[in-house]
Design a protein that fits this description.
Blueprint lengths: L5 E2 L5 H11 L4 E2 L2 E2 L1 E3 L2 E3 L3 E2 L2 E2 L6 E2 L3 E2 L2 H18 L4 H17 L1 H12 L3 H26 L3 E2 L4 E5 L4 H14 L4 E4 L6 H13 L4 E4 L3 H8 L7 E6 L1 H14 L2 E6 L4 E4 L5 H7 L16 E5 L3 H12 L9 E2 L17 H16 L3 E5 L20 E4 L6 H4 L6 E7 L2 H8 L5 E7 L3 H7 L5 E6 L19 E4 L4 H6 L1 E2 L8 E2 L4 E2 L2
Parallel strand pairs: 11-12, 11-14, 12-13, 14-15, 16-17, 16-22, 17-21, 20-21, 22-23
Antiparallel strand pairs: 1-18, 2-3, 4-5, 6-9, 7-8, 10-25, 15-24, 19-20, 24-26, 26-27
């Protein structure tokens, strides 16, 4: 009989909230967070109710501004930008470095907020915080050479990002943009992360970083955060539907932009035999329930290798650990080691479950389904946001699971017989961020990899967004605008010589680094 679990001591949402009130009382008030604009914390916006995906309990919701107030915030950010761009680089570097020190001091609180707000298992939440801090330190150490001969933009950088990596994507980008001489605006993701981002922004603002943090619906704030003439650059991370609207707006305005969008990242298996290596990596591919832009939800497998593939894949996927990220046997036990917590909310869980059921009804073959009885939950807790890992063979073409990224712990497998079929299946979404081809023959990899429409392609190993000097972008519909990563992130938010063409994917040209 499985032991009865309890919440780890000191990790409840009320505990986290009281710590936020103590660390940054200027940004947290009673049961709400504040917006940050015009260099002051503002008790404005209509606060929406919010619940944690972890157990359905109430947490702080976003204080959503209206469009008119957002316009005021953007105008104030331009004033900050005009002052900040003239701050000498040594001072900017010192302020960003001081911000990193205080973020590191409160890294465990930031990680705990990520657990409650977006359901990250503890190990991954802490890694998100640490990647942000370590990644920005790399820029602090090397920024002088990166900005030589370059100048800040004419207006602040507007950041609109998805909820899944608040620290290592959004806060990381904001601090590098500020280091390069720009004031920065960040929109709180609609689905989660408001308390974590508020705490991080409060710590940065104390060190003099010109940051604006606002909440609101994308439709209502887009006029201010995307189209406003004061905005010098739009940085967007999210889905293709919203990204397409942003891409149209920035193209019409001729505005600097970095738009990272989803794509169906695929893992191909062709003339391959190192099944132990594949089995070792399969559980890691499910980290955070595949809720990341570089997840691999699709395997494209040579038909005559399918039996060997399954012999490696199925035992590996059966080891996945699912459950409440803070549930332990004894209150003082270490944090549980989990691969998957909840998805972002109950609505997303139902959407995935409905898509799986519909795909099976239309002919997909279920190869694996995790069992809720194996998951680690507290007695009686709400589990409506949890999805057990599922693997389907040959999803029908009519299913969203055939051509789109599920953003949840759902794998699909497609069988192919020829190299042409392999490439067609790996390129199903008109561009991706990453891909992998597992083949024993290096020459085969070298021949096929250039025909896979992904920005990064690995030979038998997964690719990721990367840190420090690793570049990042996307091909096809998965990316619009300047590529980032390494020095390209700084180049994307600064002005170089007249006539400079940035590496990126633009309507008028595509240039790889």
């Amino acid at each position: 009989m499985a032991p009865t679990l309890t919440l780890k001591s000191g990790t409840g949402w009320p505990d986290a909230w009281q710590r936020c009130l103590a660390v940054a009382p200027e940004a947290f008030r009673d049961e709400r967070v504040l917006n940050l604009w015009n260099a002051a914390w503002q008790a404005d916006g209509r606060v929406l109710p919010a619940v944690s995906p972890v157990d359905g309990s109430r947490i702080a919701g976003p204080p959503r501004l209206d469009g008119a107030t957002a316009r005021q915030a953007v105008r104030a950010a331009l004033d900050q930008h005009r002052a900040w761009r003239h701050v000498p680089l040594p001072e900017r570097r010192a302020r960003v470095a001081a911000t990193l020190d205080v973020l590191a001091e409160h890294r465990r609180l930031l990680a705990l907020l990520l657990v409650w707000e977006i359901g990250k298992p503890w190990r991954l939440a802490l890694a998100d915080v640490d990647r942000a801090i370590d990644g920005v330190r790399w820029y602090v150490d090397g920024i002088e050479e990166m900005v030589t001969g370059r100048a800040p933009l004419d207006g602040p950088v507007s950041n609109i990002a998805s909820w899944n990596y608040p620290m290592s994507v959004l806060v990381h980008a904001v601090l590098v943009q500020a280091l390069a001489g720009n004031a920065v605006i960040a929109k709180t993701p609609t689905d989660g992360g408001v308390a974590c981002l508020t705490l991080a922004s409060a710590l940065a603002a104390r060190e003099g970083i010109p940051v604006t943090l606002v909440s609101g619906s994308g439709g209502e704030l887009s006029q201010a955060l995307v189209r406003a003439p004061e905005i010098g650059c739009v940085s967007f991370v999210g889905g293709r539907d919203t990204g397409a609207a942003v891409a149209t707006a920035v193209a019409d305005l001729g505005k600097r932009h970095v738009l990272e969008q989803e794509g169906l990242n695929t893992w191909g298996i062709w003339n391959y035999s190192d099944w132990d290596a594949l089995a070792a990596v399969v559980p890691k591919l499910f980290d955070y329930g595949k809720q990341r832009c570089t997840a691999y939800p699709r395997f494209v497998v040579q038909r005559h290798l399918f039996d060997a593939f399954l012999a490696a894949y199925l035992p590996a996927v059966r080891t996945l650990r699912v459950g409440h990220p803070l549930a332990v046997e004894q209150p003082d036990d270490p944090y549980p080691e989990l691969d998957i917590g909840p998805v972002i909310n109950a609505a997303k869980a139902k959407e995935l479950q409905d898509q799986v059921a519909e795909a099976i009804e239309r002919g997909a073959v279920p190869l694996h389904r995790g069992s809720p009885s194996d998951a680690r939950f507290l007695p009686g807790q709400d589990t409506s946001a949890y999805v057990q890992p599922v693997t389907l063979l040959n999803p029908p073409r009519s299913s969203p699971l055939h051509h789109a990224e599920p953003f949840g712990p759902v794998d699909t497998i497609v069988l192919v017989d020829t190299e042409a079929e392999l490439l067609a299946a790996m390129n199903a979404s008109n561009g991706a961020l990453v891909a992998t081809l597992s083949t024993d023959d290096r020459a085969t990899y070298e021949r096929l990899a250039p025909q896979i429409r992904a920005f990064k392609t690995g030979h038998g190993r997964p690719r990721s967004r990367g840190d420090r000097d690793e570049l990042f972008g996307g091909l096809g519909a998965s990316w619009h605008g300047a590529f980032v990563g390494g020095e390209l992130l700084v180049r994307a938010v600064t002005r170089g010589p007249a006539g400079e063409r940035l590496p990126g994917n633009f309507p008028e040209y595509q240039m790889l680094p």
